[in-house]
Design brief:
By secondary structure, the chain is α+β, with helices and mostly antiparallel strands. The chain folds into 2 domains: 281 residues, no CATH class; 189 residues, no CATH class. Helix content is 34%, strand content 24%.
């Protein structure tokens, strides 16, 4: 089912990406602006906020420029980014003429609530990001139809820009407003202009603000003494632990969204951090892009979950996966978090395929399409995590940690599976038949099979997957009982009795060294192998994937791992390795 909550949080991530990419688009001005953090003008109730240094200097500018050029393979990666400030009705902008004379060092962007916006606005945001990443030649602008805010899109929020010359910034906003047919307005004594489409533009305490009318009003309220995000307790705690060399960051507070009547968490946010406040810092270098994802939590409990929890169980689960895996992920405490994780994965699957809406859904030459694969893989996971006391007893009660792996670079030698550690062998044994019965009810074809080393096994064909899933309960070589969902018998055998494990491989050691901070990896990906497989089965041309393939070619590896920073703050670090050219 299509989950709009995942799209709302995706909006914030897209906006953050816009700001992160926008950084470094020109040399530092002689007057860098106030240097103030836009968070000081953002209401404390904002559930989603992103900020960036948009006029970096020194090492930060060198790192940001190098990373962006490697990722986009464009010599002038910022030439089209000015379009993010082009409101509907205004002509294309030129950075050096229109923006450089007044832009300060910092910029922020926020949503006033997750709300109930229609997906048209989110779709426009999804169109905006690829255009920005493509760079574009000639200093053009992005599609003006991609502007996110206003009554026509239903997205409530604003961009807040530090200024080096507020008079020139006001002149720029007045020109934009004139082209858009705006009319003069005021709120609490502060003048601004508003377009027929609900876009507001104005100067508030030397900050240039462009967004929805409601969001601009909230900035004015904050500037006149209202509670600001910069002084909010959760935001301050997370920012105090942020690493150095940060180019951009995203802050998400599901508690704030719940207090405003919106869902308490989006699918993607739940996947990352459970139900706790989160801050993502982007740190570029000439050879990598790092994301430090910090969550604020205290104590244990159901909300403590999320794929980015830094518990050692996930790292241990990864270390036991087959040594030749090019994709591996370890999850801890899945008996508590599994239902939420599966729901979040459904949201991500929906997000991944929605960009291809309207495109052909036909399978590739190899019989695959992304939407079908994702839905097929999630079918047994959904059955394992369906709500109710029966599910809790039959499935979740015996689950401990879990691992996900994939190996092989062709469809012939592809091995992949989900491995769930069992705390109760008798219950996980019984779960095979019970899961088979549930899959049969959903239209799948299920039959009992025999796999050496297992005490119960079935083969299931589910809609969307061109290959059968083998599901088995058995003992691994070290005596642990594991419940495996694999692509065929070979995948089950590799999961239970691999010829080697990731604990002893050079790739795991390299991932640990990349992460630093004594973090053990619980996520690794080798992108060249992934691309080889995608191209081999024709999925590189799938509309859901083709737009990101050029950027995947710029990446080498992904390593992820977590640790506790002391007290309630947990950090999960993701490091993307960049291809080095010349």
């Amino acid at each position: 089912m299509h989950d709009p909550r995942s799209h709302r949080f995706a909006a914030a991530l897209l906006l953050a990406s816009v700001l992160g990419a926008f950084a470094g688009c020109g040399s530092s001005p002689s007057s860098p602006g106030t240097g103030a953090d836009p968070a000081g003008m953002v209401p404390a109730s904002a559930p989603l906020y992103a900020s960036a240094v948009v006029r970096p200097s020194g090492t930060l500018k060198t790192n940001a420029t190098a990373a962006a050029r490697t990722l986009t393979r464009q010599p002038n990666v910022y030439s089209s980014l000015v379009g993010v400030l082009q409101i509907p009705g205004s002509p294309p902008l030129d950075y050096h003429r229109d923006i450089a004379p007044w832009l300060g060092a910092n910029a922020g962007i926020f949503l006033t609530s997750l709300g109930t916006s229609k997906e048209s606005g989110i779709g426009q945001l999804q169109q905006l990001l690829p255009q920005i990443l493509q760079g574009g030649a000639g200093g053009g602008a992005t599609n003006p139809g991609a502007w996110p805010f206003g009554t026509t899109t239903g997205v409530q929020g604003a961009i807040v820009l530090d200024t080096s010359d507020s008079a020139k910034a006001r002149s720029f906003l007045n020109t934009e407003a004139h082209h858009a047919g705006a009319h003069a307005a005021s709120y609490r004594g502060v003048a601004y202009q508003a377009t027929p489409g609900g876009v507001a533009l104005g100067i508030v305490d030397r900050f240039a603000v462009l967004g929805s009318v409601a969001a601009l009003h909230s900035v004015i309220d904050t500037g006149l003494g209202g509670s600001s995000l910069a002084h909010a307790a959760n935001y301050s705690k997370l920012l105090s632990s942020a690493p150095s060399g940060v180019l951009a960051h995203v802050y998400a507070n599901p508690v704030a969204s719940a207090s405003r009547g919106a869902p308490s968490t989006s699918s993607l946010l739940g996947l990352l951090s459970g139900t706790h406040p989160l801050d993502v810092s982007l740190i570029p270098s000439t050879s990598s892009i790092a994301l430090d994802i910090d969550t604020l939590a205290s104590g244990a409990g159901p909300g403590r979950g999320g794929l980015l929890a830094s518990g050692s169980e996930g790292a241990q689960a990864l270390s036991e996966l087959p040594g030749e895996s090019w994709l591996a992920a370890g999850l801890g405490n899945v008996g508590v978090t599994f239902a939420g994780d599966v729901q979040a994965l459904h949201g991500l699957a929906s997000l991944a395929t929605s960009s291809a809406a309207g495109a052909s859904a036909e399978s590739s030459a190899g019989g695959f399409n992304v939407k079908g694969l994702l839905e097929g893989i999630l079918t047994p996971l959904s059955a394992l995590s369906s709500p109710g006391a029966r599910t809790q007893h039959d499935f979740l009660s015996w689950m401990s940690s879990a691992g996900i792996f994939a190996s092989g670079s062709t469809i012939v030698n592809l091995r992949a599976g989900i491995v769930i550690h069992s705390k109760n062998p008798s219950l996980s044994h019984a779960a095979i038949a019970k899961l088979g019965a549930l899959l049969s009810k959903t239209g799948g074809s299920v039959q009992s099979i025999s796999i050496p080393g297992t005490d119960a096994a079935i083969s299931a064909r589910v809609n969307g997957l061109p290959v059968e899933l083998d599901i088995a309960n058995g003992r691994s070589s070290d005596g642990q009982t594991k419940f495996v969902i694999g692509l065929g018998e070979a995948s089950v055998q590799d999961a239970l009795r691999p010829s080697s494990t990731l604990s002893s491989t050079a790739s795991s050691s390299a991932a640990a060294a990349t992460l630093g901070e004594s973090a053990r990896p619980s996520l690794t990906v080798d992108f060249p192998t992934l691309l080889t497989l995608l191209e081999g089965v024709g999925l590189a041309e799938d509309p859901s994937i083709s737009k990101v393939v050029p950027y995947l070619r710029s990446l080498t590896t992904l390593a992820g791992g977590g640790k506790n920073l002391g007290g309630p703050i947990e950090r999960f670090r993701l490091v993307l390795g960049l291809q080095q050219t010349g």
